[in-house]
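Margin note: ligand = pyridoxal-5'-phosphate.
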Amino acid sequence: MTFDFDKPIDRRNTNSYKWDIPERHMGCSDVLGMWTADMDFQSPAPMLDVLQKRLDHGVLGYTIRGQRYYDIIQDWLQRRYGWELEKDAIHFCPPGVIPAVCMLIEVLTKPGDAVFAFMPNYDSLYGAADSMGRRLVTVPLLFTPQGDPQCSDWHMDLEAFEKAAVENDIHLALFCSPHNPVGRVWTMPELQAFADICKRHDIFVISDEVHCDIVRPGVRHIPMGSVPGMEELSATLMSPNKSFNVAGLMTASVFIRNHDVMADFRKKLSSWAMTLDTVFGTLAVEELYSDPACEEWLDQVNAYLTANLEYAAEYINRNVPGVVTYVPEGTYLLWLDFSGTPYRDGALCEHLVKDCGLDLCDGREFDPSKDDHMRLNCACTRATLEEAMRRLQIL
Ligand SMILES: Cc1ncc(COP(=O)(O)O)c(C=O)c1O
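Resulting structure:
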């Protein structure tokens, strides 16, 4: 089966977060939504059919996840990541990955405790430390350009991480894997070296792996909970949200092998009366993770996204003076460096919206110091991306 990702679908006036927030557009109309991380494609048809059938049933009462959900998750993790996980290490976490991160922060630390994150980082992930009243301690990722636009040159500064851990008495780290916004898919030696530090200093890791299924050909994502030695020292969070473009279904899963942490997490969910799932979320996960046609859709969308990213990166590096980027190993997001242009701070966003009609993510969301970076979402039709490239001008 071949899926048609070129099919144009107008998302305006559908309460789309990406396309329908007019205040982001500074009074301009005809702005292309290239910011928040969802895709402009229809989800796999077999899943839409399953949801339609449930809708036809017509009774949409309180919903649980049954044995089928656990079987399918176990099978998915084994098939995709070679990760054998027992049923009692699996829990669903409505309404999404970030609410679960917030609850785990509450479970694992006290107000005022230090929580670690590398920067730049996804704003809602590192921001969760602050919003839960913890003290965020950050270390910059290292950028060591080798001059190869096919290669992402971001690395963890592990020496600085260990120093910060000791100095700040850190026992919890927020980890993004694959990394948003720089697009790294961490390798086993990198994860192992990070894990060694965590083990030495008893640092529990909350690993946000929401982008885990969107990777370039030949690149392999490794779940944190499967890294030797991290079984008891991590919570791994995944969801079909990015992979199959179902963010609006608000569904996710968390994998915790540490029995005490899992017990406390369950208690926390229950104290917030979050013990039931959404009817469509449950059905979607089960169908998406078990139907070979959905996995085929995932392979094809990955191929389409890779072609989009390669096209846009090449176009920008060749044609947009002062802006550089590279093809990331994972995610469908390009991290653009505008430092060779005169634009800084709000002037960069203003130029892109008002002069170019492009709504990208401001780099400062990911790191307050990145006033010369923007994040471009390439999960759109090729026609939309080509239009965005035509519009991207440095005056
Ligand atoms: C790294 C990362 N984590 C989490 C999320 C949001 O996940 P959820 O909607 O499940 O909270 C996003 C969305 O862009 C993301 O990029």
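Residues 67-291 form a domain with the Aspartate Aminotransferase; domain 2 fold (CATH 3.40.640.10).
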